[in-house]
Amino acid sequence: MKGTADDRPSRPAPAQLFSPGADAIYRLVLMTAAACLVALPVLGAGIVRSNYVTGVGVAPSQPVPFSHKHHSGELGIDCRYCHTGVEKTASAGIPPTHTCMTCHSQIWTGSDMLKPVRESYEQDKPLVWRRLNKLPGYVYFNHSVHVTKGVGCSTCHGDVTSMQMTYRANAFEMSFCLDCHRAPEKYLRTPAEVWNMEWAPPSDQATLGPQLVARYHVRGGERLTECGICHR
Amino acid sequence: MALRDAEPAIRPGETLRSIGERVGEIALVHPSGKRWWIAFAGAGLLVGLFALTLGYLLYEGVGIWGNNNAVVWALDIASYDWWIGVACGSLLVSGILLLLEAEWRGAVNRIAETVALLATAAAGLYPIIHLGRPWFFYWNLPYPNTFDLWPQFRSPLLWDAIDIVSFLVVAVSLWYIGLLPDIAALRDRAHAEATRQAEEVAPTRTKARLRAQTYGVLASGWRGSAAHWQIWGQAYRIVALLGVLLVVSVQTGASVMLAGSVMPGWHGTLMPVSFLIHAVLSGVGVTAAILVLVRGVYRLDAVITGRHLDALARLLLCLGCASAYCYAAEIFDTLLAGDAAGRAVLLRRMAGGHALAFWVAVLGLVLPPQLFWSARLRRSPPALAAAGILVAAGAYADHVMILVVTLTQDFLPSSRLPYGVDIWGIATFVGSLGLFLALVLLFIRYLPSVSITQVRRLVPPEESRQALPPGGGRAGAPSPDGAPLWGVAAAFGSEAELAAALQALTPSRGRIRLDGYGPVPMPRTLRALGLEGRSILPYALAGSLAGGAGFYGLCLYATAYDYVFLIGGRPRFSWPSFVVPSVSFAMLTGCLAVHAALLWLNRLPRLNHPAFNIPDFLRATDDRFFLAAELQGDGAEVLRIERRLTALPVGGGRPVALARIPR
């Protein structure tokens, strides 16, 4: 200080509290915080939808390495041969060991791979399969009404006939159900096509769909999106 | 009115420096530390109780409150309504005092704003923890979800969620913006102390420096420039206005939530008004109690004077009378024009199983304020604190009465199950009280509990007695050690002198950038700098309108187009129900826009700045005013500026000190 007339002696300027670099760090922290505010929810939403959480495309190991591709795709066994309840009951049903043994008591009877099946049959103890498609307890889903009203297997379960080991094809989140419940005409098939695992909407789906909706007496929109349709 | 020519709102003889010392000392030196620790330990125990209760609640479910019957809203929602009422009330008082430019507000504003913020913090937990599955609380907010659903925008429950988020943002903003220059004052005091300790090589010097830097980061590089003060004042007032509007939206929204049901006793047309009045009454009560506490413990009667107590007491009296009117009108209206169910509710309130709540409410809200017809009691701190606590208790009882009495007996005889106040409900509330008190104690421990800035505005300007000898200014090299120069700085004892000096320099300033720094807002300096026209109102307006319109658009898109969910016969385009959350959201985005403008227009944060190199600049947040002339080219103009300044008359712009500032 060159000159002062104050009663208190003038202090020399103390060193600055912060170095020039502190500003860059402070602004970086502020901007990072702001970015995190946006990025963290986006990241969270991404993780929740990822296959890691939903399990889509992940084939878990099963007591027997059963191949849908071989049995259903290559050998042509109908879905209903094993999943017998699909047209009549809420649950499609997991086949009992007896169903396996209808064939495997005659073919591949000595196969090591099928040992658990034979043991299950001998001991009268069911095979414990790892379940793939789960719904919460408050969702009341019925296979029979979907299958008989033109919703094909592959719409929900994907092309099972191409799966060597079976995996979950869709995350059964509410939005997945609502996509169809809000616009059933985009998904409905003729009865003959329900079991077609390679079904894709035909070119005339735009005209066929509404006709099918009428033929099956499906009331889309206002009726199918009522809460009580799935939750009771 | 007597209030207007009452004694000054500050003890005579206080100066800019003495106010900063008196208030800053509490945060930095902290007298009466032992009593603080005892109080904090007590509050900490209650916080522990809160944690215990919440743990048990999460484990066992909301049934522990005893209201898993038709009385779905009991102490949980009463506590929430009460806390948010206290928050709304204190925010409203603070905001209105600020908008009306009540000159004495400095001693009250800060505590009112703090009560608003901390009560919101205590309130904010309740809407989450009273849910059956608290971890899904975000389901009430509009976000892109895997259900493919939208929340119900026509429901007051959604309005409430938006309200509390907005209210939290506005309360934090009002509190922090008001605090900003005061934190800078603390930073500079702490910095001076840290420098002293560093020179003495004191053992605590690292801690002292860390403390100064903590305040420094919080102050975001506030330098008290005239331009800073201008934008700051505008930001503070705009956020206060947004807060006042939001308070009305929140409190009426809370009463509409009740009116939206079919329950008897919840449809009085006066209810939004009485909600607001009781909120303000409880807010003023809690603010007054804490003000008296802080004044007594830290002997702040120099800045929190009898006049402040008097003003708060008068406010309580007015609101107490308004509350009496609300009760009388409701009773009169029900008896005169109410239906049988309404009359039955009134009777049950007065004489039913929960009649205690009614009588505590009426006696607590209406009677204690009547004390203040006496001028002697209006100035008695114990009377003010006691009345404040009593009206707060009355407001709580009022919320319990409104909720519980109606819910214990609705139109379905089968659901008339008894409800008794449960120990866990009380424990939860006491725990939230502990959280509030612990935060209040932390606040008065580390931050100025009285606004240094606002109180300083009451100090009459004083002329400095000394000045540099005329004809100062030294020829030769601009900087002694050859370092590049940032500019020339001059120190003044008052704003008037600073403004006079700036006016003298302005005509010939050329490319030199002039600025003034000081510890209080400086309108005259601003005029001298020619910056008066700047306004952040357009930013705030644009932010609010964009947010409000955006939210309204979202409601319309979701409800009328994307997710048509017809409920209760309401039309697809039910526009009135979207107004409330849109207004609340507009307040939030307006607030964020104000923050952005405050930082951007002031070029903050700037922790390191050449102005901090000015000798004695720490006193720019204390009792000194500085002029800085930032040189653009070579240092040739240095001499001219120095000569011009030292040639000014004493008291008319002659500085008390001059210095050349390195870059």
From TrEMBL, chain A:
Membrane-traversing stretches: 24-43
Keywords: Membrane, Transmembrane, Transmembrane helix
UniProt key word Glycosyltransferase: no
InterPro entries attached to this UniProt entry: Cyt_c7-like, Multihaem_cyt_sf
CDD domains linked to this entry: Cytochrom_C3
Pfam family, one: Cytochrome_C7
Residue span, Cytochrome c7-like domain: 139-231
Keyword Nucleotide-binding in record: no
Superkingdom of the organism of origin: Bacteria
Protein name: Ferredoxin
Record organism: Methylobacterium aerolatum
UniProtKB/TrEMBL annotation, chain B:
Keywords, sorted A to Z: Cell membrane, Membrane, Transmembrane, Transmembrane helix
Pfam families: ActD, NrfD
Coiled-coil ranges (or none): none
Location(s) in or outside the cell: Cell membrane
Chief subcellular location: membrane
Residues that span the membrane, as ranges: 36-59, 82-102, 114-137, 157-179, 238-263, 275-294, 315-332, 352-372, 384-403, 423-447, 536-559, 579-601
Membrane topology category: Multi-pass membrane protein
Top-rank lineage group of the source organism: Bacteria
The keyword Cytoplasm belongs to this UniProt entry's keyword annotation: no
InterPro entries in alphabetical order: ActD, NrfD-like
Family indicated by similarity: Belongs to the NrfD family.
Protein name: Ni/Fe-hydrogenase subunit HybB-like protein
